[in-house]
Sequence to fold (1440 residues):
Amino acid sequence: MSFNTFGKVFRFTTWGESHGPAIGCVVDGCPPNIALSEKDIQADLNLRKPGQSKFTTQRKEKDLVKILSGVFEGKTTGTPISLIIYNEDMKSKDYGNIKNKFRPGHADFTYFKKYGIRDYRGGGRSSARETASRVAAGAIAKKVLKQFIGSKFSIIGGVTQIGPVFINRDNWNDSQIRKNPFFCPDKEIVSMFEEYLLDTRKRGSSCGAMIELRAKGIPIGLGAPIYSKLDADIAAALMSINAVKSVNIGAGSDVAALTGEMNSDEIRSKNGKIKFKTNNAGGILGGISSGQDIICSFAVKPTSSILNTRETINTSGKNTKISVHGRHDPCVGIRAVPIGEAMLACVLLDHYLMNRAQCG
Amino acid sequence: MSFNTFGKVFRFTTWGESHGPAIGCVVDGCPPNIALSEKDIQADLNLRKPGQSKFTTQRKEKDLVKILSGVFEGKTTGTPISLIIYNEDMKSKDYGNIKNKFRPGHADFTYFKKYGIRDYRGGGRSSARETASRVAAGAIAKKVLKQFIGSKFSIIGGVTQIGPVFINRDNWNDSQIRKNPFFCPDKEIVSMFEEYLLDTRKRGSSCGAMIELRAKGIPIGLGAPIYSKLDADIAAALMSINAVKSVNIGAGSDVAALTGEMNSDEIRSKNGKIKFKTNNAGGILGGISSGQDIICSFAVKPTSSILNTRETINTSGKNTKISVHGRHDPCVGIRAVPIGEAMLACVLLDHYLMNRAQCG
Amino acid sequence: MSFNTFGKVFRFTTWGESHGPAIGCVVDGCPPNIALSEKDIQADLNLRKPGQSKFTTQRKEKDLVKILSGVFEGKTTGTPISLIIYNEDMKSKDYGNIKNKFRPGHADFTYFKKYGIRDYRGGGRSSARETASRVAAGAIAKKVLKQFIGSKFSIIGGVTQIGPVFINRDNWNDSQIRKNPFFCPDKEIVSMFEEYLLDTRKRGSSCGAMIELRAKGIPIGLGAPIYSKLDADIAAALMSINAVKSVNIGAGSDVAALTGEMNSDEIRSKNGKIKFKTNNAGGILGGISSGQDIICSFAVKPTSSILNTRETINTSGKNTKISVHGRHDPCVGIRAVPIGEAMLACVLLDHYLMNRAQCG
Amino acid sequence: MSFNTFGKVFRFTTWGESHGPAIGCVVDGCPPNIALSEKDIQADLNLRKPGQSKFTTQRKEKDLVKILSGVFEGKTTGTPISLIIYNEDMKSKDYGNIKNKFRPGHADFTYFKKYGIRDYRGGGRSSARETASRVAAGAIAKKVLKQFIGSKFSIIGGVTQIGPVFINRDNWNDSQIRKNPFFCPDKEIVSMFEEYLLDTRKRGSSCGAMIELRAKGIPIGLGAPIYSKLDADIAAALMSINAVKSVNIGAGSDVAALTGEMNSDEIRSKNGKIKFKTNNAGGILGGISSGQDIICSFAVKPTSSILNTRETINTSGKNTKISVHGRHDPCVGIRAVPIGEAMLACVLLDHYLMNRAQCG
Fold:
């Protein structure tokens, strides 16, 4: 029972509110003797950082990470790694006018009812600012996995849908993803994403998105029956990201419409190498990795903070209206890409270590 | 780190293989002084039991549950409740011809590679037979929730899609669900489900399904930031069910195409009662229950064991073919309904108790 | 948070009451491909079994264990191992006259107050009968450790004190332990133990005992900072045994009277082999095994069920008296030896697997 | 499986090395709406702080704590409380001459062998400096317990033995404890403690100690069968403190020499109030609190860092000698008093919340 800790062997505990002095996390269970520096982590943080393009929030945060423990002379020591990121852009006066209103779609209402108290400044603990800690933990997980698995290991995520605009998955190209501000793997779609987002912002509205993650080089055997299935842990990891409402593994919800022949991936052996003819399973069979690419996706709801007026109630239970000004992402799904990658990396490393525990 | 245990306060640990002498589970953390008998549990087990209609496997299992501990003079004592279900229909000779082949879509390949050994009889531990234990644990969870919450509490699940056939969600009628062999809540669609399934079986094939779960009467405040979110735990719970490839909360993957106005549920107060105008959130905001109905759904892939011949390899890595005879469900999604209900009940009770721990 | 589960990777969950139909446990996380049969487990159970000599309870229990899952064709499969032991000697009428009285020194009072209900037959869940499950789990742990470490691994426990009678620790001889009914490692003391126990029983009384455990062949590096220290986990494991009130590691409470020179074990290297000159640390430094023998001890209080009349209250809070007839061990400490061995084996295996997880 | 986290509901995760930039902890699961300020925590930290008298280390640390999250407008919010204490006195050059030697009695050897790397400056992670974090977490636990239980709740610890000098437990007087630099509850013994310690330091040596803890006002029903027994968790908590080698509950190891009549505490009722005639059980029966005072004690070994020369080996496995200069406590047991109090407070709160979860 742990409210703010993720993982079983490779565990991280995050803390901090959006408008407190700092946020951070403690990473426990990291194997020793892994080369690690703040630069390794910063690189990933910069992908999530606000203000990177005109399509994300203009909130100014450098998101500079500091390592406070667990690394000695450039290497992990096996003891807990404490990371801290100071908050800089803490204009809490911004929130004065809405502090007593529950923003629809946000956690304001449920936090207040559950705890009888909440830090109303920018969502407090429920703010997506917490996800910077996840990205930092994920950067460490990736470094470990790279050292253990080698160069064939990779994790990459891309935005496959924004509002009504879809990519063509056959056009997925890893090398495109970092070349546009949408993490879009399909070059042909970038301008449509752009157009739709500009229009969305102009309308004072927001839009949802779908993100797909792909992990390569994952060994066979990660995962476990029955309640530590790899896919179940991925589902929990992705669903725990702010605003996520759907998680799919492999063919995902499409399987409902398939037949057994279409769905089950046939297996072939050639020159001692095992190949599956398709990958509807998303690289996971019976909760255990099969050696195929791990494929999963998740849907992110539209940013709940919008300029357009919405009906709501206040903390006294009175009806009122709200319009959320400020510097919000029109599509929070975009910045969810590095977060999803980080969470997937953490789950995979966690299962790598768990498998080592039981199976050597 | 627990491979075969589910839950944090209300925990159950399942054990057993499809063709061993018995299966069962140990339920720990159940509150004391709850009236409980084998009959309470049996009622739910009978919903999942094979052979209930011509649309499910004809394997004969009475699935009679016995309580071995934790109940004294008709009431729970707060100590672990051990449940056992003896296996009756253990024709392990059935499996002789396929014991060295990996059935595509099944866990045969991954179990063998992970552990270097597996009980090949009917899937062994990876068989969906394990889910009988979940239904039993779920029956206990429901009894506790009913005692704590009262009559306004309910959980019901229905099949909303089989292959290409969908229900009309506006026609959902709880009272229809137990009246047809498909747990179909839309009377108009029952005959189409029937027709499609008969055809599927005739073709030696199988099909997928989509199941929706609805829980009513759930108090505000269940769930927790950040890594014990109610929706994240529901996602893990449902994704851990055999053959599930997708989990949705509320509007689910549809949120990707919505705008902020369409998605975020406005809040109204009337005569002191709080009402949300819509329920795209599925009753969960920021990982915490909002008092609305909890709505979630999951997709089940088509039964992987089909009569039609499929390509595969054997345990020596040689190419071969396989055709799985025997008594398989053409659509395993149907019997997943009581399993999904059970898992949802367990998650909700678990969070009910967790909330009591932290918030009194 | 798990009330009835022990361990982190190698975990066992026990269930059952002294006068229910059966007791048992589920062992999860056991590595695959370990040869295991009921005979392996039965051998250890027989050491704990009641009625083995006139110095232990004459309750008749064969304590025959059955494996219900997790073992296939003589080997563990990596899936949960379910063990069951049927209760035979369930004369619950014996308990009629004391069912409403709280036996001093027993858990009757606290269980009743905590849960508002209890199975009063023979202590129910709080009976030391539960420890049979621990011995069974421990037998599995020992088999795994033997396979991993080889023949240099061993665990042995001995009774070093009964009431006022002490052994001379310099006379400790492993091979004597199984040759007398007291697990006494010092041949010279056996007859004094016997005499004292016979006298104790004649007086309708009971007596305490001290048990020492020694594990050999344990690799360096088991344990972890800060809250999974090997010694902390041993302390919890031993203190969780019924009637234990003290746990010592190495020199134990004697360290309070030592000087730094006397206590800290000097280290020497000879021909590439590292040797400590003494072992006051009990083989554990900073919570991590040092390669020396693991030495620990625990004190067991006198059997609380005695013939001599004691003052107490009943469930209505009225003053009354109690005299507990029946077949009780005059010194429960004796049968605690195999239980202590089992718990130590489980802790060591658990840390062996945990170390594999983090450090490979 | 958590290496650096303590607790189940009220959990804290500590991080930091003795000579890194800071140490700290994250407290998760703290109930909301508890008044909490840095001052509350600082008061307890000051009790443990080095340099308070000539009988403890002269290392200069202000140990000023800062709250980084989880408290809003003076009250806990139910979200994680992050605490940080900056290290000031980091003379890591002090350690140059011993960096390649394993100090006998310290964790140097085992950390190096386990992880293949270690922060050798002052023990790094294995330094007792980590215990400042425990004291901080304990201060929070005490505040919560006081709010829940009221003024009848208290925890106090005292040193009952230093080297060969014992207090008379009948002279125990709570009000004396804070009046002398030894946390000695027996006024008569203070000067003997002083004399012995001065002599010990003059000899370049160190000495062990015994500490006793007493908690009052604890409700009946905290604890749980079988593997979350209150006494087992106390044992783990105290044994996890640096240098502790023995833990006793109530009469502790003395029970080995008692008879059943002497040991089991008789129960009486008078005017509706239940009273035990003695408290050999230390307030815990069957792992559950009985409403009596919780009494436990632990032995702390002599400081391993002593001036007198000791034999050891270096990291290359060569024989060498070591003499540890610097500012070390002659008796680390003294400063263990506030640490023991803190750990006991954390265990009690944790079980208070766990009991609330299962039993309401």
Residues 57 and 329 of chain B are 4 Å apart (CA to CA). The first strand of chain B starts at residue 5 and ends at 6.
